[in-house]
Amino acid sequence: MSRPSFIKSRYNSFRFAFNGLAAVFRSEPNMHLHVLASIVVLVMAYRFEVTRVEWCLLILCIGMVWVAEIFNTSIETLTDLVSPEHNILAGKTKDLAAGAVLMAAITAVAVGLFIFIPYWAEYVKTEL
Ligand SMILES: Nc1ncnc2c1ncn2[C@@H]1O[C@H](COP(=O)(O)OP(=O)(O)OP(=O)(O)O)[C@@H](O)[C@H]1O
Q1: Where in or outside the cell is it found (predicted)?
Q2: Whose CA is nearest to atom 12 of ligand 1?
């Protein structure tokens, strides 16, 4: 059997990765919440004209939460495959993965508050 060309195999890698992204969006209600939160944050960042460094921090936080959720979904899927029956270690594995998402989300909220509180305070002072 001939090996696929370099370009074809790279193309397939990207296609599989996008399939994975699409699967998370289809199957995970939590991902819909992350997307909604990301849109709210990006709109606020645009509205308040945050600095270039603040844009970078916000985008990093959004990416961190999305990546954590995608890994969480991957770990849940693998755990269900390996241990469909009740098992303490399977439960611990899923709890750890969910804990990672929570930690990422808490970090993102903390960064968001540090960035936006001064803008909110300025808005309240000048507009209300
Ligand atoms: N096979 C199992 N053995 C033991 N406990 C399990 C098992 N599967 C799930 N659990 C427990 O139930 C919890 C929820 O598992 P579930 O697979 O429903 O995740 P989920 O609620 O869909 O997570 P998410 O909301 O992140 O998608 C786990 O965190 C774990 O504590």
Answers
A1: Cell membrane
A2: 91
